[in-house]
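User: What would this chain look like folded?
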Amino acid sequence: MRRRRWPCVPVDRGIVELIVSIGAVKLGEFTLASGARSSVYVDLREFPMHPREFREAVRRMASRAGELMGSTGAEVIAGVATGGIPWAIGAALELGVPATYVRPEAKGHGTSRRVEARVAGRRVLVVDDVATTGGSLAAAIEALRGAGASVKAALVVVDRLQGARERLAGLGVPLYSLATLRDILEYMAGRGLGDPYLLERALAEVGAR
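Assistant: Here's the prediction, encoded as structure tokens.
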């Protein structure tokens, strides 16, 4: 059985520069949300503290989201709580399309929903900030499908290249990103930004091209 192939999307060099410029890339020893240890952490929650850079980053996200919505027929943007919410809302406002978000679990009061909108019968683009193993994205996709939505694609700002793309492919959902962790680390290494030893370790985690 042939593996499904989706079109490749070129890296957004501008988003790489913005991510590095606001100090969102941390080198050291970190535990990721997946539980794995890493020499690098990309903290995109830094962006709202830098409004000029954040505005430009959201515009870039909106541009890519618009392209994907046009090619896949998606009509709603759904952010993955909590990191994906500002990107989803910002992109939706730029594009003038509906938006919602997906909670990690149903809240215990009010409507007790995981998906904060009626999405039954709607075609959805899922948005998050960073993808590692794809666990949060996969859970959001299943929640959206459980609510009656058709998930057409997923888009993140940064793909760490640690299994998310393959995991979502297994669900029949292509994963796209504005940039990969390798793109960011190679940009930093090429400009002498950051500790060379830690950069080398971090690049080893994502592997060679």
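Residues 41 and 149 are 32 Å apart (CA to CA). If you want, I can go into more detail on any region.
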